[in-house]
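Lab notebook, bench 4. Still working through the backlog of constructs that have no structural model yet. Next entry is a single chain of 346 residues. Request: give me the structure tokens for it.
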Amino acid sequence: MSPPPLIERYRGDLGTLEPGDPVVSLNEGSTPLVEAPVISERVGARVLLKLEGANPTGSFKDRGMTVAVSRAKGAGAEAVICASTGNTAASAAAYAARARMRCAVIVPEGKIAIGKLAQALIHGARVIALRANFDRALQIVRELAAKHPIELVNSVNPHRIEGQKTAAFEVLDELGEAPQALAIPVGNAGNISAWWRGFGERGEAPLLYGFQAEGAAPLVAGHPIDDPETIASAIRIGNPARWEEAMDAVTGSRGRIAAVSDEQILDAYRLLASEEGVFCEPASAASVAGLLAHGMPVPDGASAPETVVCALTGHGLKDPDTALGKAPAVTGCDADLAAVERIVLS
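Model written out:
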């Protein structure tokens, strides 16, 4: 049997749910924590990969969405709305369908990976392609939710963060102790904030290494980026909604925010797939790219981390175009045993 739904396992830790709220679940959570021997050798520490792409819709967003939609359903909402670079749209659409609620998502036109768009559409969401970037889309949905009885389910929703913090609980439960460090991609900054909350509620404080793409690195630059651009579409965000919480988390952990190039992200993406057997979306690979590019700096008086968890936030099938564009070509062959043999053995 599969583990109980995330809400049932951690309900006592989810402070935003009401006693009578239903459980809208797809059995999210309980994602694998996988050893990464190749990366471990390269960075000189034990590296573990938290495969959040194993959630029902293929990303970590499901952890927060089960809580947000359960609370919305309990409060009597009939519809949910979000702005999205893709993963939130897919998750919101799936959980709204499960709850028999209407869903609308606003995405930046031409800036959403095809796998994520397909998910949102097939789950029945009303998808609106905005001729603007994610930050403008988020501004619009916040204004809409303020005017109408629609539940906003972006990471500005406190129920989302409550659900996402359970990833930290799972790591602590599986390891029996805290890792010395967490490496995590940073886009809208809700996830790094949630992990920090989860660790804090268990009395732990590992170093947090947050990594942004160079073309979308407002936390590194110290100011919003008007036209963020990166191949890692899930973190193509120029003005994170949880900017202050993310910086508080990094400062409180004595960790670091840094940027990695698209080339470094794609190198890590290929390394994970070809050497570790793990297929993640490009944004997920930012956590590994950051470790490889920047190492694991420690504050004065601290020891180098012996164990680090890399959060891989989404599955590689979310963005098949990038995968096909970076993978070796398919080899054509005649239907002849000898011809096939020559190719296989060459």
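Notes after review: The longest strand covers residues 102-108. The two ends are 44 Å apart (CA to CA). Flag for follow-up if needed.
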